[in-house]
Amino acid sequence: xxxxxxxxxxxxxxxxxxxxxxxxxxxxxxxxxxxxxxxxxxxxxxxxxxxxxxxxxxxxxxxxxxxxxxxxxxxxxxxxxxxxxxxxxxxxxxxxxxxxxxxxxxxxxxxxxxxxxxxxxxxxxxxxxxxxxxxxxxxxxxxxxxxxxxxxxxxxxxxxxxxxxxxxxxxxxxxxxxxxxxxxxxxxxxxxxxxxxxxxxxxxxxxxxxxxxxxxxxxxxxxxxxxxxxxxxxxxxxxxxxxxxxxxxxxxxxxxxxxxxxxxxxxxxxxxxxxxxxxxxxxxxxxxxxxxxxxxxxxxxxxxxxxxxxxxxxxxxxxxxxxxxxxxxxxxxxxxxxxxxxxxxxxxxxxxxxxxxxx
Length: 359
Fold this sequence. Notes:
By secondary structure, the protein is an alpha/beta fold. It is about 40% helix and about 15% strand.
C-alpha cells in the first residue's frame, strides 16, 4: 500500500520526503556477507528470515516470497478461492489485494470502512456476506489493527493483511497471528524493508506446505502450475537485520506520533483513534482535514512532502457507488511523514510547518 505522493512545485531545495527506508551499517554488513558468499538465491538466509518472523508473531511457520502481492495471491490459492467465489475487502486500500483476487478469477466485494479507524466496517462487512463468500481480506490500515475478534467470529477464512502493521498488537496477540493466514510486505518504505518482498504466515501446516510448493516451479516430479515467487537471500539478509531493529523502529514512530498528537490537539483537530484493546504502530500518521489539497500545497512550500495515504479507493476503479464514508475519508485524509530515520530537526521542521499551514 504505497500511497500517492503530492507533486506540487517545491520552493525548498531540500525536501523532507513522505517516506524513506531506515538503513544502517548492520543492514549493509548483512547484505555484503551474502554477496561475498556467492549464494544469492533462496537459501539459508531466507529460511532464517521465515523462522525469525514466524517466531516473533507466534505462529507455526512462514513462507518468504517476492512481494506482498505474491503473498496475497498464494494465500487465496491455498484457500481454494477461484472462479465463482467472492472475497470481501475494504475499499480504502491499495490495488494489490484487488489484483490478487482477480489473479485467481474470483469476484471482489468492496466493503465500507470505519471513519474513526480507517479499517473495514464490520457491520457493513456482515451485510455483504453471501453463500459465495470464500474469504475476507482484512488490512490493518496505517498500523492500527482491524476488529479481528469480530471478523474472525464470522466463520469465514480471514487473511490478515499486515503490510502496515508489523509489530502492532490486538489484545495480547501480534497482528498476523489470528487469521487463517497473514501476509506481510517488505517494500522499501514499509515497517521493515527488503526492497521488495513479502511473507505468508499461518498456524496451519497444510497451508504453509502448499504455499511453499507453489512459490517455486523447478525440479518437480509432476507438473502443476506453480510460480516464480521466491525471495533472494540478499533480501532475506536485509530482512533479518531490519527485524532485529523492529522495537526501536516502533518506539521512534510512537515518539513522533506523540509530538504530532500534541499539535493537532492544540489545533482542535482529531488525532488518530486507537481503541483501548489495540496498539497502533503509526506506519502512517493520517488525519482528516477540511481541505487536504490546500494543506499539502502549504506543506510542500515549507519543504515537507505529505500525501494522500491511498491513491484512489477501489470502488472508484471499479465504477461502483454508495461508499459515502470511504469517499469522505479519501477526500479529507492526509498522511504526514513519520518514519524512524527522521531526525529531530526534521520532526521540528514538520511540526512547525503543520502549525503554520493550519493556523
